[in-house]
Write a structure and sequence with these properties.
Potential regulator of CDK5 activity. The chain is α/β, with parallel strands linked by helices. Helices cover 36% and strands 20% of the residues. The protein folds into five domains: 55 residues; 145 residues, Methylthiotransferase, N-terminal domain (Rossmann fold, 3-Layer(aba) Sandwich), CATH 3.40.50.12160; 129 residues, Transcription Regulator spoIIAA; 121 residues, Transcription Regulator spoIIAA; 80 residues, OB fold (Dihydrolipoamide Acetyltransferase, E2P) (Beta Barrel). The protein binds S-adenosyl-L-homocysteine (SAH), iron/sulfur cluster and FE3-S4 cluster (F3S).
């Protein structure tokens, strides 16, 4: 018990410093040997060093683990990824950390020694999927008689449920939150002795800036880069600030280096990720520049950051690495939207002219209850500014229906906003109450499920109808398509246009720069004439191979170079 008490005491001390929670579990028979290790192991100062450490050496800090305790056998890891793009990028970070420690990766369940499930907690449905997956893995673990199979739960659901996850699902061996992935080799090593290990420590400064993610899908022509972690916005419905902690930005230099490495690997498109990219700040850099905020009527729950490099500066640097690389970013919280960001998007051909401006609701009263910091009018004003500054810009959004107290009239305002704005892409969700959030404490989840479902369907209907119209209007136009792959069933070529819409065309040799014909492969840019449209896909005819620069030069000057 001494071990647990000491850890709990240490954990409490750390939590008071950085709202953390870190515990390890072991059965009583193993306490003696662990106590012995504790004597040789680190003291409190080592924990504090770890939590505030910003420069990480090649050899990761692994408390309680002596050289002899490191895993010696090659362990094969199977990754399961749920949730948003941040989880995809985090999985690449985890894989980078484990690969360095000698772990191997497998895509075959039967070969796996360790299952790592990267989880999401955004809605109840997201967690239900993961519980089903865990049912399957529990059975798998029981049947694997020839070896000991371990299950690790990572990500947002791990952070939300903490040790309760292990209490509820005994088959789980490791629980690791989004800021404790450096600790995974140690946590996994602890499980070798049959222990269960939990680290859900949230950090104020962890950005994994020095970890070069190793992409699970090396063949993909696109990649994600997290430029910041956490969120300080505290929208009343949202669990993310509780699962991902406080907002912090990664230094510009490490982001630019990663973009350069990806460009060298042949990656043609990167998406910069953050919960609110407008508040990106690299405070290690000084700049005299300030953001000019566009529309009136926006407020923020936390102090706007001053000084440091802003998102507009980052976009400038990232888009200059390789003019042939498409740059996307998400999500841009509508509040505090700076003019400088719009300016640089309109100037750089390789920054995609698609803005994700999540509205969440079209009703000012609902937006107030959601604590979004803007009204319907301010949002519409921003949309107007965006459309006038960047001609031809596409917009995408997230919308929630059935939030606490949402009346039929308030919901209809969401529908009318969708009618007015012309979204090219929308992610539409029925509200799901999450524990710990302000809405959970302050409001009642009083819209019945069948009404949420009905409103969700009505949103989907408006969205699909509008998309169909927008897409049909593209028939006859020529789009620049980045080829992603070949459809397994039809053999057709699949790619995306600048607005991230899927474009499909038949596989055929296409006119090349030298006047000859050559086949199309992933990573190619092809000018495609749109000949058919559905709500989510465009059909086209390939015209000629091109480059990003040539395509937009021709578009601007009306002739081929
Ligand atoms: N930071 C991003 C979004 C992150 S979460 C932003 O501010 O836009 C992705 C989306 O999930 C949110 O935009 C919201 O539409 C949805 N969402 C978040 N919490 C939800 C909840 N409790 N119920 C339903 N949808 C939710
Ligand atoms: Fe959640 Fe709001 Fe933060 Fe987006 S901005 S992650 S919706 S709290
Ligand atoms: Fe993403 Fe889900 Fe976490 S949406 S940030 S993985 S709660």
């Amino acid at each position: 018990m001494l071990y647990i008490r000491r850890l709990q005491r240490l954990s409490k001390l750390i939590s008071s410093a950085s709202s953390s929670n870190c515990r390890c579990y072991s059965d009583t028979q193993r306490f003696a040997s662990v106590k012995e290790k504790l004597k040789q192991g680190p003291g409190l100062k080592d924990f504090i060093t770890e939590s505030s450490q910003s420069v990480i050496t090649d050899r990761p800090f692994i408390p309680y683990l002596l050289e002899n305790d490191r895993i010696k056998t090659k362990r094969r890891v199977f990754f399961d990824v749920y949730g948003c793009q941040m989880n995809l990028n985090d999985t690449d970070i985890v894989w980078s950390i484990l690969k360095k420690e000698g772990f191997e990766k497998t895509e075959v369940e039967e070969e796996a020694d360790i299952f790592l499930v990267m989880t999401c907690a955004i809605r109840e449905g997201a967690e239900t999927k993961i519980w089903h997956r865990l049912d399957h893995l529990r059975g798998f673990k029981r049947r694997a008689k020839d070896r000991s199979v371990k299950i690790g739960i990572l990500g947002c659901m791990a952070e939300r449920l903490k040790e309760k996850l292990i209490e509820k699902e005994k088959a789980v061996d490791v629980v690791a939150g989004p800021d404790s992935y450096r600790d995974l080799p140690r946590l996994l090593a602890l499980t070798e002795n049959g222990q269960q290990a939990v680290n859900v420590l949230l950090s104020l400064d962890e950005t994994y800036a020095d970890v070069v993610p190793v992409r699970l899908n090396q063949d993909s022509v696109s990649a994600f880069i997290s430029i910041m972690r956490g969120c300080d916005n505290m929208c009343t419905y949202c669990i993310v600030p509780f699962t991902r902690g406080r907002e912090r930005s990664r230094p510009v230099s490490s982001i630019v280096d990663e973009v350069r490495q990806l460009a060298d690997q042949g990656v043609k498109e990167v998406t910069l990720l953050g919960q609110n990219v407008n508040s990106y700040r690299d405070v290690t850099q000084t700049t005299e520049k300030f953001d000019t905020h566009l529309a009136k009527g926006f407020k923020t729950v936390y102090k706007t950051k001053k000084g440091g490099m802003r998102f507009a500066d980052l976009l400038d640097k990232v888009s200059s690495v390789d003019p042939e690389m498409r740059i996307r970013f998400t999500a841009a919280h509508p509040k505090d939207f700076p003019e400088e960001v719009l300016q640089i998007i309109s100037e750089r051909p390789n920054i995609c002219k698609l803005l994700h401006l999540p509205a969440q609701s079209g009703s000012s009263a609902v937006l107030e209850r959601m604590r979004r910091g803007y009204t319907r009018e301010a949002y519409l004003q921003l949309v107007h500014e965006v459309k006038t500054t960047i001609p031809g810009v596409g917009l995408s959004t997230d919308m929630i229906c059935g939030f606490c107290g949402e009346t039929e009239e308030e919901f209809e305002e969401t529908l009318s906003l969708m009618e007015m704005v012309d979204y090219n892409i929308a992610f539409l969700f029925p509200y799901s109450m999450r524990e710990k959030t302000t809405a959970y404490r302050r409001y009642k989840d009083d819209v019945p499920d069948h009404i949420k479902k009905e409103r969700h369907n009505r949103m989907l209907e408006v969205y699909r109808r509008k998309c169909q119209q927008l897409n049909e209007a593209e028939i006859g136009n020529t789009h620049l398509v980045l080829v992603e792959g070949i459809a397994k069933k039809s053999g057709n070529i699949l790619g995306r246009n600048e607005l991230y819409l899927r474009v499909v065309f038949e596989q055929t040799d296409v006119l090349a720069e030298d006047g000859g014909l050559r086949p199309v492969k992933p990573g190619d840019y092809v000018a495609v004439k749109i000949v058919g449209a559905r709500s989510a896909t465009l059909r086209g005819v390939p015209l000629y191979h091109t480059s990003l620069c040539d395509f937009y030069r021709e578009k601007q000057w009306g002739e081929r170079c």
